[in-house]
Design goal:
single chain, two-stranded antiparallel sheet
Length: about 100
């Protein structure tokens, strides 16, 4: 498997334009709008999720609080206390490939 460079935005726009027989400018506007919608959904308050048709599901999951706990300094081996961390409603981003993408890989 070779490491091919990722497509640039312009290359992606041209590839979609060729397959849809649309103007590259129209494709660019559509992809920009898709990007804006995904960002709005994922950055809204509370957990959010967006599915990009048959490719990937992106969701923000809340992150639970962690209590204070004992640990060790890896350099010295000395015991330390790791501070507690409060819960965060805007937690971690999880991207999950959907069946069509998994089957293609």
């Amino acid at each position: 498997m070779t490491d091919a460079p990722a497509k640039t935005k312009a290359q992606l726009n041209r590839a979609v334009a060729e397959r849809t027989h649309l103007e590259a400018r129209e494709v660019e506007r559509v992809l920009d709008a898709l990007s804006e919608v995904v960002l709005e959904e994922l950055s809204a308050d509370g957990p959010g999720a967006v599915t990009v048709a048959g490719l990937v599901k992106a969701e923000v999951r809340p992150e639970a609080a962690r209590a204070e706990r004992a640990g060790r300094n890896p350099a010295t081996g000395e015991p330390i206390t790791i501070a507690a961390r409060p819960a965060r409603a805007r937690g971690k981003l999880k991207l999950r490939p959907l069946k069509r993408l998994r089957d293609a890989l």
